[in-house]
Design a protein that fits this description.
By secondary structure, the chain is mainly α. It has seven helices and no strands. The chain is globular and about 55 Å long. One of its GO terms (molecular function) is carbon-nitrogen ligase activity, with glutamine as amido-N-donor.
C-alpha cells in the first residue's frame, strides 16, 4: 500500500470520525504527495515519499519555532498537533545514541579530521539517516566529532 493509498484511507476515517484537525493535515499531506507525483511524472518511490513527509514536517518545525519566538502559545499547540499527525507516516526516529554511533563510524570511514571535512561527512552520512533522524541533531554531532 502506497503512502497515497494510506492517506486516502486515513482521510475517510477522519471524515467519519469528524476529526477536523487530523482531516486537514491528512488532506494537506495527500495534496503534497500528489503534487510531487505530478511534478516527477511517476509514482513516488518510498524514498521520494519520505522526502515529501520530511519537507512537510520541517515546515511545521520552523513554523512552531517562529510561533514560540513570538510567544503565540495557542498556535504552537496547533502546530504541534499537526506535527504529531505527520510523524505517524514517518519511519521510527533513531535515538541520539544510534545517530551518534553512525556519525562516529562515518567520520572514521571518510577519514575526516577537521571542520573543513564536514561536507564530506554530511554527504556520506545523510543517505544513512535521512528521514530517520533530525538533521540538526546530525549536524551537531558531526561538529562535535570534528572539533
Amino acid at each position: 500500500m502506497t503512502l497515497l493509498d494510506t492517506l486516502t484511507v486515513d482521510m475517510k476515517t477522519a471524515m467519519k470520525a469528524k476529526d477536523k484537525a487530523t482531516l486537514s493535515v491528512v488532506r494537506m499531506l495527500k495534496a503534497a504527495v500528489s503534487n510531487e507525483q505530478i511534478k516527477l511524472g511517476h509514482d513516488l518511490t518510498p524514498e521520494e515519499e519520505l522526502a515529501v513527509l520530511s519537507r512537510e514536517l520541517k515546515q511545521r518545525v520552523e513554523e512552531r519555532d517562529s510561533y514560540q519566538a513570538g510567544h503565540r502559545t495557542e498556535l504552537v499547540t496547533e502546530i504541534q498537533q499537526q506535527m504529531d499527525v505527520v510523524k505517524r507516516y514517518m519511519p521510527a526516529q533513531m535515538s541520539e545514541a544510534e545517530v551518534e554511533t553512525i556519525v562516529k563510524a562515518t567520520v572514521e570511514q571518510v577519514g575526516a579530521t577537521q571542520k573543513s571535512d564536514m561536507g564530506k561527512v554530511m554527504g556520506a552520512l545523510m543517505p544513512k539517516v535521512k528521514g530517520k533522524a533530525d538533521g540538526k541533531l546530525v549536524n551537531d554531532l558531526v561538529q562535535k566529532y570534528l572539533n
